Amino acid sequence: MPVSLVITTAKPYAHLMGGFLAFLLIAWLVLSVLGFVIKGLLWLTFVGIVLFVVTAIFLWLKRKTSGTTR
User: Fold this and answer.
1) Cβ distance 7 to 48 under 8 Å?
2) Cα–Cα distance, 24 to 19 (Å, whole number)
3) Phi, psi for residue 67 in degrees, rounded to 5
4) Alpha-carbon gap, residue 32 to 41, rounded angstroms
5) Could you tell me how many helices (H) and strands (E) the chain has, helices first?
6) 12-45: pLDDT as tens digits
7) Three-state secondary-structure class, residue 7
8) pTM score above 0.85
């Protein structure tokens, strides 16, 4: 009796990716604010802003290419 393999295109952890990216956006925002509040860590503000923008663009492109709208 042959065993048939089912090939799916669904990604089992795709729903977790959006939540993880949202978490990263919040983390970068917190780092930016923390860097702004603590004057000695002003560089952290710029790092947080850059990472926030890069993550937001990645999330936007991922949702645009996947065709999902929320």
Assistant:
1) no
2) 9
3) 80, 10
4) 9
5) 2, 0
6) 666 777 788 888 888 888 888 888 888 778 888 8
7) coil
8) no
